[in-house]
Each structure stands twice: as C-alpha cells, then as structure tokens.
Amino acid sequence: MAAPMRIRQPRNFRDRKDVLNELSDAELIKRYRLDRAGIMLVTDLVRERITNQTERSRAVTPEMKVLVTLRYLATGKMQLCSGDDLGPSQQTVSRVITETLFALSRNEILSQYFKFPVTLENCHTKAVDFQQIAGFPGVIGTIDGTHVRITAPKEFEAEYVNRKRYHSINVQVVFDATYRILDIVARWPGSVHDARILRESSLNQVVFGRGMVPDGYHLLGDSGYPCKKWLLTPYLRPQPGPQSDYNRAHKKTRNVVERGIGQLKRRFHVLHGEIRVTPTAKVCQIIKVCAILHNICKDRNIRIPAPEDIDEPAEDIEEDYDNAPLAVQQPPLPPVAPRPREGLLYRDEFVNLHFDNDE
Question: Where's the DDE Tnp4 domain (predicted)?
Fold first, then answer.
C-alpha cells in the first residue's frame, strides 16, 4: 500500500509593522531610545554586515534587525522584541540580536565613537567644561568601575563573583563633563579590582604611559585607584584647608562619572538587571554597543526617558545593583602594588598651587 501523500502546509508569516513610518520620533525614542534619523544612522553603520544575501521576500531587513536589537537593549527583555510591534519569531529575534551586536561592536565603530582627548585643543575644551562644575582645573575625564550583573558562566565561574557576591563584568568607563563616554573597557570578571583593570588598560599603557596627553591634564578617580601625575585621587584623611577644599571639589567633579553610569543604565535597561545571555563575550558586546548608542544619543541631544516614559512593564524594572547593600561586608581590597610616591607628591604640589587661597 502506497504511503499517503504529504500535503505541504503554507507558511504563515506574522505581519511586521512599519514602525519607522507609523510612530512619531517621541514614540520611537520611548521604545527604541533613538529617533528615526538616529535609527537610520545606526542601520547605515552596519547595513553591509547585516543585509541578508538572499532574494526571499520575507528576509529581515537591516532596519528591522536594528529595531529588534534596540528594543532588547532598551528593555533587557528579549521576549518583548517579538511582541505585537515588530513581528519576528523568538528564534529570529535571538539570531538577529546576535548578528547586529557583532556588527556594531567592531573596532572601527568603537574607534569612531570613543575618542579620548590627546591634542592640546581638545584637552583644553574638556578641562574648561569640567572647571565650570566646581573650579577643579585640568580635568579631562572622570573614571570609575561599574558592575553589570550576569548569569553564572559555565567556565571560571568563581572569577565572576564580585565583592557583593553576585556574578558580574567589571566595566571601566571614563566620562567627560557632558556625560559622553570617552573610553570603556568591558572584558574583566567581577572579582578583578578596579586598579588592576586600569593598570592593564590602554589608558595606562599607551595614552598616558606614552605621553600622548599634554602635561597638566588629569583624570579624577576614587581612592580605589593609585594616585598618579595623570590620575588624581582624594585624600583619605584630609587636613583642614587646601586638602579639604581639594577633596570637596574633587568629589563634586567626580560625581560626573557616577551620574554618567546612571544615565547609561537608565537609557539601556539591559544593563540595569541581570543579562541572561552566554557566553560572557556576548555580554561584553552588549555593554560596548550600549555605550556606543549612548554617545549617539548624546550627539543627537536625545534626553534620557523619564521613568513614566519607559515603555515596558513596571514589574520589569530591576533594582540598581550598584547601590544595593553588600551581602557580606568585606575589608577594602589592597592595591595591587604600593602607591608610587611620585603621584602623592604631585598631588600635594597640585593642591598647594590651586587650592591654597592664602597665597
């Protein structure tokens, strides 16, 4: 007896909305964090890399791939990308996000949007902006580390447990006074100390190590960093007078990096909670792409969405882990090497020169 003939069922395609033409710029920013022109700018950055090499009429367009990725980064919820707004299946969403993140995190795009000031003119401009905050001279950037929570990786799991007892990537970031990111390092496990990340970074080994930045210009960092001629830290026990004045101006100016990190995480909520993707290399791509998009938003003067404007379920809002209490109180980590006396002497001279009002 012959086997029954199989009847091929027609494929059912979900309708995909043309959100770029149906939604206003305000609605696009609410859902995707960029206006229409900004979304097209991002699409053009990666168009050649993410255009399907097929003639199928239902192939996902580069614009749709960018929208799906932006929606995921804005909400941190992959399932929202396949909701009633965009249409692709969950399997397609996952593939599209991976493809677009890889294309956006290429070195040529990173170098285009992260430009550390090294010319005298650019350093002067940055320093003027910072000096208007609290009168602190010669600052071109503020530096700090922030932890982005991740699921426990399968390899080297213990190395990713930070001092707050959760798994994370420790991200080093430098902001200028306009809250634009100048430099970002997103590759170190959560257990690695900020001082080591700095020591191994190109900022230490190349930019400042090779004298690319003119003398007299500095970064500001907290007391977890070693004090250097190009990285000024606060006094742990300041004396009344110039040292205390220096610490007050230092704290007010350095708050830029803390507020900048807050802006980055509010703008792209995927960084606010636990990133549930593997491997960790993909998490690092997500962090760097969010930083690129943050700078694009700054270039386009796109404001950070207010809490009431964030288009996602209220229960999806995660707590800010950076401000959570420590699960286990631990003593501060020791610096990886003795603090160079040269940096401390330079700080004393700097304070006497700029904060001694009696002279």
Answer: 143-295
pTM, to two decimals: 0.86
Query: For 310-346, what is each residue's pLDDT tens digit?
Result: 655 443 333 333 433 333 333 344 444 455 689 999 9
Residue with tokens 């001629």, as numbered in its chain? 229
The rounded radius of gyration (Å) of the Cα atoms in the chain is: 23
The residue whose two tokens read 């703008």 is: 267
Taking Cα atoms as reference points, which of 259, 202, 232 lies closest to residue 138? 232
pLDDT tens track for 38-76: 999 999 999 999 998 765 556 789 999 999 999 999 998
Residues 142, 200, 205: CA angle, nearest 5 degrees: 80
H/E element, 232: strand 231-232
Q: How far apart are CA 274 and CA 169, in angstroms?
A: 11
Please tell me the distance from the alpha carbon of residue 255 to that of residue 240, in angstroms, as a whole number. 22
Rounded Cα gap, residues 246 and 250, in angstroms? 6
Measured in Å, how far apart are the chain's first and last C-alpha atoms? Answer: 108
Count of CB atoms within 10 A of residue 152's CB? 11
